[in-house]
């Protein structure tokens, strides 16, 4: 193994990571082309550099690079955690974090000189990101919503009526809490409900708008 092998391996990893990153950039993710390319490139550089050092120092790969790989796996976890964001009741970035971890693994494989497994892994990752998205969208899922509804204290809708309206639109109420504002004197109901109908949230929103006694409401679908 010589210096040119290190260069070829790292450039191949750069391309593999960049290809995966293009798919992420296309879907507007924060971690895109540059992030994936550099993650894959850096992983390959560390592994290939460690192997090259073993060859040049001992004349043979008498040692191993498992400690380097362990360090990569540990370090990439911090980068993956940085793209996971909690927006209200929804957690986003889990797929991006997982794909960054995969890109790092591909870089390790290519850095070790296994070009064919690295190329196959890149193709499989792209297929999974593209096709599984469509499959996931077609799968039947439960829609969870967090609903806050506010009324003037003297014109508040009874809890039983609110529950009936929510359930009328296909939701099952899991829990219900109450909050009375201080100076505003607004009575607010807070509930978590779920439904198996994807269009139920829109219909419930239209029903809430039709009630003039509702001062404000917040309907927040929740899906990881």
Protein model, in words:
This protein is an alpha+beta fold. It folds into 2 domains: 3-138, no CATH class; 143-222, Alpha-Beta Plaits. Helices cover 58% and strands 20% of the residues. The protein contains 7 helices and 6 strands. Strands 4-5-3-6 form a 4-stranded antiparallel sheet, covered by helices on one side. Strands 1-2 form a two-stranded antiparallel sheet. Strand 1 and strand 2 form a beta hairpin. The model has no long low-confidence stretch (mean pLDDT 80).
Task: Give a brief rundown of this model.
Helices cover 58% and strands 20% of the residues.
What's the structural blueprint in terms of helices and strands?
Blueprint: H1 3-26, H2 33-58, H3 66-82, E1 85-87, E2 90-92, H4 94-111, H5 115-138, E3 143-152, H6 159-168, E4 172-180, E5 186-195, H7 200-209, E6 214-222
Antiparallel strand pairs: 1-2, 3-5, 3-6, 4-5
Number of helices: 7
What is the β-strand count?
A: 6
Element-level helix/strand string: HHHEEHHEHEEHE
Enumerate the spans where pLDDT stays under 50 for 5 or more consecutive residues. Answer: none
Overall residue-averaged pLDDT value: 80
Tally of distinct domains: 2
Gyration radius over CA: 26 Å
Helix content class:
55-70%
Strand content: 15-25%
Strand order of the largest sheet: 4-5-3-6
Q: Mind describing the biggest β-sheet?
A: 4 strands, antiparallel
Q: Based on CA inertia axes, which overall geometry fits?
A: elongated
Kindly report how far apart the N and C termini lie: 45 Å
Structural class: alpha+beta
